[in-house]
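Internal ticket #5521
Category: modeling
Description: The requester needs a full-assembly model to guide mutagenesis choices. All entity lines are attached below as received. Residue total reported by intake: 183.
Assigned to: D.W.
Attached entities:
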Amino acid sequence: MLRRKKGENEDMEKVAIYPGSFDPITYGHIDIIERALEIFDKVIVAIAHNAEKRSLFTVEERLEMVRTIFKDTPNAITDSFKGLLVDYVAKTNAKVILRGLRATSDFEYEFHMASMNRSLNTHLDTLFMMTSKDYFFVSSRTIKEVASLGGAVEGLVPDLVVRRLKEKFKLPVAKKKQIGWDD
Ligand code: PNS
């Protein structure tokens, strides 16, 4: 097996792709991104266009939220992608896919996804970071559900996201979408 020799490519930027739906971004995601920025030179937050998932926010709305939240963090890049994640990663200089793990219940899904991505591109690795204990119970899905029912999500998502959720749920059209969101 070929391993990098000492001194070789040491000036290469270490880039991680953090893919997801981010519908909407939570402090759990933000915690992972901030910790990853301690390890990687750059983290690309890649929002998936996923036609199979019903989302509350459009990809453009999600991009706007993430970009605003990280406007003062130049090493956190926000982008969106269509199609296979491995194809998107191949267009960047990232070698690592980053995912957060909240609990063992996340493991099976993540294990299958990482294995599939690895089988599609053997040069790619998925790196898992444990979610901080403060955000173990936070998911985009539960945030949407709680917010739609008038519950408080302050402290679990940034104020901007709280405002966007309130704006959405004031609209009677958006209210109808309460059933059947995916995480
Ligand atoms: O936040 P999510 O919804 O758990 O993120 C899932 C995501 C977007 C990372 C995953 O669905 C994905 O990579 N979609 C792109 C399509 C793809 O590459 N599928 C094969 C991976 S098994």
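Resolution: model delivered.
Comment from assignee: Confidence is low (pLDDT under 50) at residues 171-177.
Ticket closed.
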